[in-house]
Design goal:
Layout lengths: L1 H22 L2 E6 L2 E6 L5 E7 L4 E8 L4 E8 L10 E8 L5 E8 L9 E8 L2 H11 L2 E6 L2 E7 L3 H24 L12
Antiparallel strand pairs: 1-2, 2-3, 3-4, 4-5, 5-8, 6-7, 6-9, 7-8, 9-10
Length: 192
Amino acid sequence: MRFYLQLTCFCLLFLGTIVQAEDEPHLYRTVAGWHILIDPSLGNGCFAIAEFEEGTALRVGLDMDGQSVYVVVGDSSWRSIEYGKSYKVSIVFGDETPWSGDATGFSFSPPNDEPYLWIAVSEGDAIDLFVDEFMREKNFQLFYNDELIVNLNLNGSYKAGLALIECQQEAIQSTKDLFSEAPAPSRDPFEG
């Protein structure tokens, strides 16, 4: 009896690990210094992420559940960001018009993880423009209280953007395939 109980516990732990692993982002491809991943927690939205000097990280992605594009940016020295607090920021790609809005204090695994800023940037037609600027422009600037706090060189962002779009198209297609391959429900009430 004890053996079966241990076996059952092991199986539940193993299955729990699989379910948890399915919720974690997984790598699609690495290109030009950027990692392209798929995030199941955002409707299988794809994102591009790179780490820069001095511990700054930049993630640009698509939230398929919210039908929006977002930016996550953080720096290892930004310890005073408060989880859930709102911060007025502006993002500028090159010399383009600023994208202004509220950033939210965020952590991937609170309270142990470093704090980041999560910025839901745009919805609808503006998504294309935002991704286009990310791909075309040479730098990313983040302003807080009208002060420049981040200035990153976007080397490889064009190739990363192409891979991001390709990743999202494949993720959408695989979701369609999953539903289209489902067998039609049986009309036989005595089946099985």
